[in-house]
Amino acid sequence: MSDRDDTRRSPRIPCDLPMEYHVKGDLPRDGRITKIGTVGALLATEEPIPLGAELVLSFRLPLSNRPIRTSCTVKWVDEQSVGVEFSHLNLQEKDEIWKFYARESARKRKARP
Question: What residues does 86 pair with on adjacent strands?
């Protein structure tokens, strides 16, 4: 899917952020966030996660002093990625993600020839 074809409720920006997650009741595991927006994220995980699973996700955004810890639901799964929708972001966390998105979008536009 190209960026132009993306019809999400919230735009997402490519990134490479370390994160920790756990399916409720399991031990925490490490992974990467490869795209993020204020409504959800694309996760790269080594272990498969079932569709519909409830996760607790913890990560930090660059230039932010506080971690974001939120519940999310797995909305789709493929062999290497998991798409999640955030369940409980507060306004400050949404604002931090939006600022990160805006900064990365501006960098991306400047990098285009």
Answer: 72
Looking up tokens 């062999």 gives: 79
Distance CA 43, CA 35 (A): 7
Supply the pTM of this predicted model. 0.86
Angle 103-107-109 (CA atoms, 0-180°, nearest 5)?
A: 115
Could you tell me if residue 65 is inside a domain?
yes
In a domain, 48, yes or no: yes
Spell out the per-residue pLDDT of the chain, length 113, in tens: 444 344 456 789 999 999 999 987 889 999 999 999 999 999 999 888 999 999 999 999 998 888 999 999 999 998 889 999 999 899 999 999 999 999 998 988 887 76
CB atoms within 10 A of CB 10: 16
Counted domains in the chain: 1
Alpha carbons 50 and 32: distance in angstroms, whole number: 17
Cα 41 from Cα 80, distance rounded (Å): 14
